[in-house]
Amino acid sequence: MGSIKKNFTSQLELSLFGYIAKAAEEIDQPAYVIGGWVRDLLLERPSKDIDIVTVGSGIELAKAVAKQSKRFTEVSQFKNFGTAMIKFDEYEVEFVGARRESYSRNSRKPVVENGTLQDDQNRRDFTINALSIGLNRDDWGKIYDPFDGLKDLENKTIRTPLAPGQTYSDDPLRMMRAIRFASQLNFKIDTDSYEAIAKNKNRIKIISKERISTELNKILLSDQPSVGLELLYKTGLLEIFFPELVALSGVEEIDGQTHKENFYHTLEVVDNISRETDNLWLRYAALLHDIGKPVTKRFDKNIGWTFHGHEFVGSKMVPKIFKRLKLPLDDKMKYVKKLVALSSRPIVLATEKATDSGVRRLLYDAGNDVEDLMTLCEADVTTKSEKRKKRYLNNFKVVRKKLKEVEEKDHVRNFQPPVDGKEIIKRYNLQPGKEIGKLKNAVKEAILDGQIQNDYDQAIEFLDQQAMEMGLLAGSDRKN
Questions:
Q1: Distance between CA 472 and CA 480 in Å, rounded?
Q2: I need a surface site. Which of 106, 162, 173, 209 has the fewest CB within 10 A?
Q3: pTM value?
Q4: Higher pLDDT, 182 or 415
């Protein structure tokens, strides 16, 4: 750890820490940098969030620091929590007074009292987050590590400072955080900690869905989300707040025929897509792309296991899942719902001859999200046969090429029919009604089928033919 300490000391030479040290000395309040910034520095991970703990008032120290330089923003005070925040260049610096905490059974909100540095380290969730370093004249650069956090960093282990059962029972959100850090850092969870999470899993029910989803999002945004998702599954937490995913697990056999294990397939798809994109909502689409399979699973003795319509059923489940998890119900949810609904369409085009009509319809339905849809479908290839995988991906290249060619020729992505309802009403002297919708839809279908081009004159000629067949031209005042 010698080279790491040297790196750490050089980081303390940032003027920011000099200002904090000077202010701490002026108001006679010892100050320490603690938590995630220290951990990430030792792991050589970038971090712009800095936590400062002081034996005294965090708000008063923040005020004293802000006076040191015009490079600091004004102090944002959070008096109810005894914390304050200021910005220094690209860094956000939060100040809090050292404290001790005690918890009641039915809440994760602690009773807080003033405390020492040791008290504050005791309340930290994990040993690697309890590391702190002195910013004072007599302990400048000294690492305080009462729980062997440095050793846990070396061993890539998530461990609690105090008894894990008590730690997770006091604040059950820490169970999600343990799994999130394991996923983000590619660490393992200490055996006692893991067992305590499984034992205390039902305590997660007192945590708000917003807090749970925040941690789930961070797991999904890690480099290999399957690490965290599998830990959530094996500890039993996933069953409590996301039972639809757990329902994907397992393999059923009838007459010697089995189906794919869809839970671990889904984890593979999420990992695959995470190598291609940081888009959280595209990763959610990967997580939910097969969510309708347990509901639609059927066995036919002639053809085996089927999941007919699972994409449609799955897309209908998305709003309910988002609502329960307190995820946004805006365009992000609609985006995920659409991609789940369309998730098999490019696969059909890749396994069959990609007709212009099929490609047009895909372009129309997917709109500007067609590239993301193709990325999702390519991530869905999890076969262990390299030969088969290569064939599938090559087929998708053909589909991508066809999409480009058809779009350049027909311009059907997000298109609107070249004749609108008002013009139809005027042309055929109609009153608003179902005939208008039928005619508009007929034009759209004709364009998508390739009967006519996406062109005004061709659309008008086609409409006249349709109107005549529907008996709408008799007595009309049609303009030629």
A1: 15
A2: 106
A3: 0.86
A4: 182
